[in-house]
Write a structure and sequence with these properties.
Structural class: mainly alpha
Shape: globular
Strand content: 5-15%
Distance between the termini: 29 Å
Order of helices and strands: HHEHHEH
Number of strands: 2
Strand order of the largest sheet: 1-2
Length: about 140
């Protein structure tokens, strides 16, 4: 086992290169596959080269799905009530921050959070100020 208690990532170099290239292109990166194949481990390894203060993980869960923006609450804190106010406030809070946003188990996001993620992924104006990478 590697330092930090994680198993080393072996035999995934081509995937890591593909992810690194995709992080430089407009849009986002989606890792999809069956449960247990190592998507989260691969994502963490791919993002390990980014400054840790720039990478923010949003962990979607079935219980948070019952709360609008529940998965984003640890990252964004309290937002104005109702989706019509929360969406623009969340978008504004994340816009232009240079944040790399990683969402684990996105299929478990509530509808408002999924809409926010879609908006962030399609907003061509989201760019990190220092290195030109798009926010993910």
């Amino acid at each position: 086992m590697a330092r930090g208690g994680e198993w080393p990532l072996i035999g995934r170099d081509a995937e890591l290169r593909s992810i690194a290239a995709a992080l430089n292109d407009p849009g986002g990166v989606l890792l999809a596959g069956a449960a247990g194949v190592g998507k989260t481990h691969l994502a963490r390894a791919a993002l390990a080269s980014h400054a840790s203060d720039r990478v923010h993980w949003v962990i979607a869960t079935d219980s948070a799905r019952r709360i609008p923006m529940g998965a984003f609450a640890p990252l964004l804190g309290a937002l104005p009530g109702g989706a019509s106010a929360a969406l623009p406030a969340a978008h504004a809070a994340l816009r232009g921050t240079g944040t790399v946003l990683a969402v684990d188990d996105a299929h478990l996001l509530d509808d408002v959070s999924a809409t926010l993620l879609h908006q962030l992924g399609t907003d061509r104006g989201l760019r990190a100020p220092r290195n030109g990478h798009r926010m993910r």
